[in-house]
User: Fold these one by one.
Assistant:
Number 1:
Amino acid sequence: MAQTNPFYFATRDIFEHTGVPVDVFRVTHTDDMPLHAHEFAEIVIVTGGEAVHRMFEREQLLVVGDVFVVHPGSSHAYTQVDNLELTNILFVESLLDAWVDQDASPCGGFLERPSEANAHTFPRSVNLSPEQLVRVDAITREMEDELRLHRAGTSYLVVACLLRLVGELIRHCVEQHHESDHTDRQLGRAYRLVAERYAQRITLSDLTNVAGMSESSLTRAFKRSSGLTPIEYLIAYRVRQSCRLLQYTDDSVTKIAFDTGFSDSNYFSRKFHELMGLTPVQYRRQMRTRTQRVYVKDSSQWRVQYRKSSVRRLDPRSGPHQEQ
C-alpha cells in the first residue's frame, strides 16, 4: 500500500476540548479505515472483532487482546475489517520522555520509536489475556471518568493512569518476549480456535487436540500465558464478546448468553458479574450513558464529532466508525 496523502489528525483537534494531553477513544470500525497519520502517539488495544493492520507496506492480522503503539507521523490503515473494536489511548509522546531510556531498551521494544535504523519496522505488539485485558480496561475507564468529570487535579491523575497503563503493557511485552516460540505457536492454535468458535461448544479435548499438547501441558501453558486455565479463558473470551452485544444491540440477556456460547443464562450472568463487576443489565445501562464519538468525513478530512446520548442504541452494522 503506497503511503501517500494519508488523512492527518492534528494534536489541537483531539486535545483542545479538555486541555489534557491524553484522551481515550472507544471506536467500532465496521468499514475499512483508510491510510491516516497523527501528530500524537496512540496506544491501540483490540477489544473485539478483527482486521488487517497495514503499515510500511506490511500487514499484520489483529485479534482480540492485541496491543501496539503508533508513533507520531507513522501512516497506517485497517483493512478486511470485521467489527473491529478498539480502545485508542491518544497522548502527546513527550509525556513519556522522562521515563523512557532509549539506550537501555527497558520495554522489550514495545515503546521503541522509529529511527533511521528501524524507520520501517512494524511496531512490536503484545497480546493480552482476558484477565490482563480486564485489568488494562479498568485503567482506561478510570482515565475516561477523570476526563468526563474534569475536576481539580484531572491532568495529573490522567497522566498517572497513562504511566500505569504503559507499565502494565511493558511488563506483559517483556514476559511474552521470553516465552518459547514453539509453545506460543501451539497456544496460538488454541487461542485461534476460541476466537473462531467461541459461540459453539468447545471442550478441553478440542483445545488439547488443536494445540497438540497434553491436558496438563496445555493447562500449564495457559496459566503461564494468561493466568487462566483453558476453560477459564474460554469463559472470559465469551464474556468479552457479550459486552459488544449488550452495548450495541437490544437482544435479551438470554439470547446474548446463547449467542456467545453459554447454555444457561443464569450461569452467564454469574460469570459476567464475576469478571466485569456488574450484571449484564447494569453493564448495558452504564455503556449507553457514555459519550458517543463518531468519525465523520468532512470534505477530504476525517474529524471527530462529540455527541451526548443517554439511551441511544447503536447497531454496529448501521454505519462506520461508531463508539458509545
Number 2:
Amino acid sequence: MPPPDPPSDRPDSVADQSAANTAARPLWSPRHVPPPPWVLRGSALIVVGRVARAIARQIADSRFAPSPHHYPLSLPFLGSLAAVAFVQYDASPVGPYHEMMVSPGLIWHTVPGALIARLPVDNQQSLLGGRAIWGLPKTMADFTWTAGDAPSVEVREPMGTPLIQARFQRRGSWPALLVPPLPIMSACGPRLQVFTVTPLLRSVTRMRVEFEIPDKSDFVPLRNLLRGPHLALCVEMLRLRVSTPLDLL
C-alpha cells in the first residue's frame, strides 16, 4: 500500500484561496478604504505666509516622511508660500477625524503643485487611505481641539509628546471664499503624484494666531511662518473634494 501523500499547502477550495489572498494582502491595500474621489466636510483653522526658500526646504525635510522611500526633494521650489491647516472633519468617507496639513510651498515637476510635507491624523482609515491612494505622508497623532471665539488646537504624538499648539483670536469676517481646484503633490513612496483639492469655504473669519512649538518638535521650522507676512483664517463651513491621483513618474 503506497504511503499517503504529504500534506499540501495548497488551499482546498476557492474560498480557502480567497482567505489566503486576504491574509497575505498588506494592511495598506486600497481595497481597505473607500476609492477616490473623497468629499469631506468640516471646519478649519488655516495659516498661510511667506518664508525663505531655505526655511521651506527645512519644513520639507525628508525626516517628516514615514516611509524610507521618500522622494528626494531635488525639485525646484517655485515659491515659498507655506501653509498650515488644522482641520476638523465632521463627515468623510472614513468617518469624522482631525488632521494637520503642512505645505512648505510650490514645486515643479511637469506641472506645479503644492507639496505636502507632513499630515498627522487621528483616524487609522484616513492614514491607510492617504498613504495607499495619494502617497501622502500621514502619521498618527492626538488632537485637542477647543472651539469658541478664541479657538485652539494642540497636536501630540501618540505617546503624548507635544508637537505644536496653535491659539487663534477673531478679527473680522468674510461671507465666503470660492477657491479654484488646487494642484497638490505628494512625495511619500516611490511615486510622485499630483491630484487636485477643490475647496469651498463659508463663514470665514480673519484671525490672529500664535504658535507654541517645543524645541525638540519636528515642527520647529514653522516658527518662521509667523515672523513674516501671513494670513490666518477660521473656516466654519469647509467642503473639500480630493480627486483621483495621477503618477508623474
Number 3:
Amino acid sequence: MTIHFANFRLILFTNMHTYFTLFLQLFAGICLAQTTVPKTDIYLIPILNDKGVITYGDGFKLNTPGHYNNQPIFSTNSKSLYFSCISDSFKAEIFECELKKFEVTRFINAPGTAEYSLQYTPDLKNFSFVRVEGDDKTQTLYRYNPKSKESKALTAKDLQVGYYCWNNPQSLMLFLLRGEKEFELIRYPLDVGEIKIIDQKPGRCLWRNPQDGNIYYVRKNSAYTLMQYNPANELPGEFEKMPEGTEDFIITSSGAFMCGKEGKLLQLDITQGSWKEIADFSNKPYANFYRLAASPDGQWLALIVYQNEKP
C-alpha cells in the first residue's frame, strides 16, 4: 500500500497517562499495565579469539547513573559504547562509556526532553535518535552533529516514531505507534517520494545487513518470524523462525545474526536454517539478558540484563 504524506496522519492521544504508558511500552518493552520503568543493567563481555576459536570471558556490570539502561550501540572504532539511561532525576538520556577506562559521560545534553534509539547516520559521521518532546507525547526522529552539538528534526511531528533504521541516505524504515498496541512499519523518504506501508506487526529491532543491504525485522504474529525486506522490490518475505517468544536480535558487522534465550547466546546457522548455541551464560549474573550489541572489532559483547520480569 502506498499513501501520500499529506494524507498520512496518525491518531494522537490526548490522555497524558495513556501516552506516557505507551512510551514506556515502546522504550522498555513492558506491558501497558505497568507504570514504572523496569530496572536493567549493562554487562560487558570480553570476546576472546585464539587462532579463530571464539570464547567469552567473564562479564562485568557497567556503572551507570541510572536504574534503566538499554539500547547499546558501539562506536564504529569500537572505543566507546553508547546507551540510553533513565534515573529518578532525569528522563531518558544518551550516555557514552569510553572502553579504555570505562568512564561514563553524558553524550547528548537535552534537559526537558527524552532521547533514545541512537544510531549512526549512513555517513558514519553524525548520529540519529528518537526524541520524546517536552509535551511527553510527540516522538520525533532527529539528526545529531556531535561536533556542533546541533540536532535537526527529520520526521514530521504527527509521526509517532518508536524505532527505526536507515535504508540509505535518502530513506529510513520507521516503526510507528498507531494506537494502543497497534504498530506499523513504513518506508519513509527524507526528500521527495511516498510513504509506503511495509508491515503491520513489526518488532522493535530493525537492522540493515551490511553484507546484502536488506532490512531485517521480526513479525510478531502467534509465532515470531524473522522477516527480510528487499529495498529493490520493496517486498518483505519470511527469512527464518525466531526462537519462541524472542523478538530481540542483532546483525553484526560481519553479517551474523545473534539473539539470546534463557541465558544462551544463539547464532543463526543460515545453511541449516536453525539457531545454534554459541555460549551459555545461564549460570552467570547476566543470565537474564535479552538485548545485545557486538563491537565492530569483535572484542566486546554488551548485554542488557533485566532484574525481575523480562521487559
